[in-house]
Amino acid sequence: LFGSLYFSWYQKEHSESESIHRIQMAFLHLFIVNKSGGLIHHRSLSPRAPQIGTNEWLRIGSTFHSLHAIAAEASPLKTIEDGIEVIEGKGIILCCFQTRTGIKFVLT
After folding, report:
1. How far is residue 18's CA from residue 59's CA, in Å, rounded to a whole number?
2. Gap between the Cα atoms of 108 and 106, Å rounded
3. pTM, 2 dp
4. How do residues 14-31 score in pLDDT, each as one tens digit?
5. CATH class held by domain 26-107
């Protein structure tokens, strides 16, 4: 579901050759963060995913929650309060889907 949502958005934003390149990338991790920044769940989705300890996952979840909240407040458009939706870097894409209840599903 998340992959198809991201791919449909990515097709609209990028050329066909770039989207074909991106779909070959696999998801590495899924983590779910509650509305107060606590890590609810994390799972490695690929054998290529770096192995991270539990304390590091808790730290990553709360840090991402804080960055997401800052991005929502710092948005130049006051009508948009979504925070971080996609971060793209060389070799990695991070997608965040936030529910109406504030739970965030984050895929890397």
Report:
1. 33
2. 7
3. 0.71
4. 555 454 445 456 788 999
5. alpha beta
